[in-house]
Amino acid sequence: MSSKFEIIQLKIEGDALKKLPVRQRNQLVGCMHAHNELVVLNRLLMFSLNDVGDGDLHNHAQGVQMWCVLQVLTGKLFETWNMLSDRFLRSNPEDSSISKLSSQHKKSLVWLKKYFGDQRVKRPRTLWEKIAGWLSRFGILKGQSRSPNQTALQTIRDKTAFHYDKLNLTQAVNDLADTENHIYLAQHPANGLYYVGSALVFSTVFAMIADMAGDTAGMTQGERMSKGVHITLADVNEANLHLHNVLYGLIAFLLEKAFGKPLEQIEQFRIEVLDAPKPTKVGLPMFLDVET
Q1: pLDDT, tens digit, for every residue of 31-74?
Q2: CB 272 within 8 A of CB 9
Q3: Which residues contact 289 (CB under 8 A, 6 or more apart)?
Q4: Cβ burial 67-96 (10 Å sphere, 16+ → b, else e)
Q5: Is the separation of the CB atoms in 61 and 193 below 8 Å?
Q6: pTM over 0.90
Q7: In this structure, are strands 3-9 and 269-276 parallel, antiparallel, or unpaired?
């Protein structure tokens, strides 16, 4: 049976937005826009996890589709954090909206600061990074040059999300599975799939993430990849939780500033939502019937 629930609708007039100081108006709109983007991308990620067909072709198309959504979502998580850093955290004295966060939301902010850090500040390379880079150039250090403190999501962002970083694919190529070496051609490029290309990137990057989490010397390439996938999805879920907590707290405070009173005192309209599907019941199509 489909669930039934209500959506609370508030209406804010242009005059209320005009009365807000420019800084707070930009903060409010930025948080709302970032929230909306994260919700859409998270919804797509949930849908992309659901099977819509059987066989290698569908499995491979689903894997690439899920990976692409995850990459974009990861990049957007970082951009949301950068927005919060730029518009709230760099204020001196402390921005009033930060001080008004609830204790729960402040705990989420502490987690975000520890995980994401200040991505806008260019720091000098550590001694470890300089040595690792030098050794890699001469083939002495195998694998990817990276900071020992790099997170799973930072690895996804830096290596795959919005640009194509050079990767050492040697281990992934050496252990290329028979199910990973497929290429699918189609009349229309929307239906073509070079699975082997993405499979090598998946295997390499997720294995890197597993290596950063602990000793993987006794694990196969496939086991390292599987471990990296679990680490990444866990980090995505936690980052989403804490970012949405902080966004909600900031939006609520700024809305009350705009309305001039607590949200509980604002006129509400309730919209009943019927027949909303479970997220496990919606799948994204893998192929399209494109007219040529």
Answers
A1: 999 999 999 999 999 999 999 889 999 999 999 999 999 999 99
A2: no
A3: none
A4: bebbbbbbbbbbbbbebbbebbbeeeeebe
A5: yes
A6: no
A7: antiparallel
